[in-house]
Specification:
- By secondary structure, the protein is an alpha/beta fold.
- It is built from 9 helices and 7 strands.
- The strands form 2 sheets. Strands 2-3-1-4-7 form a 5-stranded parallel beta sheet, with helices on both faces. A two-stranded antiparallel ribbon has the order 5-6.
- The longest helix has 16 residues.
- It is globular and about 45 Å long.
- The site of adenosine monophosphate has 17 residues, from helix 2 and helix 3.
- Adenosine monophosphate (AMP) binds next to helix 2 and helix 3.
Length: about 210
């Protein structure tokens, strides 16, 4: 299964991607996580990406295309993969095509902007990659990661002003991908539900149809 997850920031791509990865036993590649890791390590990649991310803008296409090319060439991806947060623009999608990658399905998780804004204000993340929401996916102990016990924090780019910019970026640069993939006949959409498990059920239903 070669899968792309599309959706606004905070639509639940990361959460669903983790569940799909577990069920289908395929790796999830999240460009946002890779870039945040690079920032944390203080690498050249991190330094070049940080200002774009803090402003809610897209990191230049050639940077993320390079990351994806490296990952997809590894053995871990040979039986399939989930792309979470890539492509995010038409040129990125064209670059993926040019790599000769045949995607089975592009799953768009649809959530209206007002809900996205409410969700992002409650998001708490951990350095281990786990993600929570104070109301919808609370950790067992307030502000402590269930998986590793570290303190949770608010992502720098989840601040209200940056969220507005990220949504604008999504609508202008990423949303046109829906038409791009619909034209190829591989777009599927799922309405993001209040409960994570309900969205997961719809996602699995949709993927089961693709498998057939
Ligand atoms: P995410 O964790 O997917 O919400 O990504 C966080 C930020 O990383 C985005 O707001 C962008 O600045 C950057 N980013 C992640 N993936 C991409 C991509 N495919 N193209 C450009 N920038 C990206």
């Amino acid at each position: 299964m070669k899968l792309i997850l599309l959706g606004a920031p905070g639509a639940g791509k990361g959460t669903q991607s983790a569940r799909i990865s577990e069920k289908y036993n395929i790796p999830a590649i999240a460009t946002g996580d890779i870039l945040r890791g690079a920032i944390k390590e203080g690498t050249e990649l991190g330094l070049s990406a940080k200002s774009y991310m803090d402003a809610g803008k897209l990191v230049p296409d050639d940077v993320v295309v390079g990351i994806i090319r490296d990952y997809l060439s590894t053995d871990a991806c040979k039986n399939g993969f989930i792309l979470d947060g890539f492509p995010r623009s038409i040129p990125q999608a064209e670059a993926l095509d040019a790599m000769g990658v045949n995607i089975d399905v592009v799953l768009s998780i649809e959530v209206p902007d007002d809900k996205i804004i409410a969700r992002m204000s409650g998001r708490r993340v951990c350095r281990c990659g786990a993600s929570y929401h104070v109301d919808y996916i609370p950790p067992k102990v307030e502000n402590v990661c269930d998986k590793c016990g570290e303190a949770l924090y608010v992502r720098e780019d989840d601040k209200a002003e940056t969220v507005a910019n990220r949504l604008k970026t999504f609508h202008t640069q990423t949303e046109p991908l829906k038409e791009f993939y619909a034209a190829k006949g591989i777009l599927a959409t799922v309405e993001g539900q209040e409960e994570v498990a309900d969205t997961t059920a719809l996602v699995f239903e949709t993927l089961a149809k693709v498998e057939r």
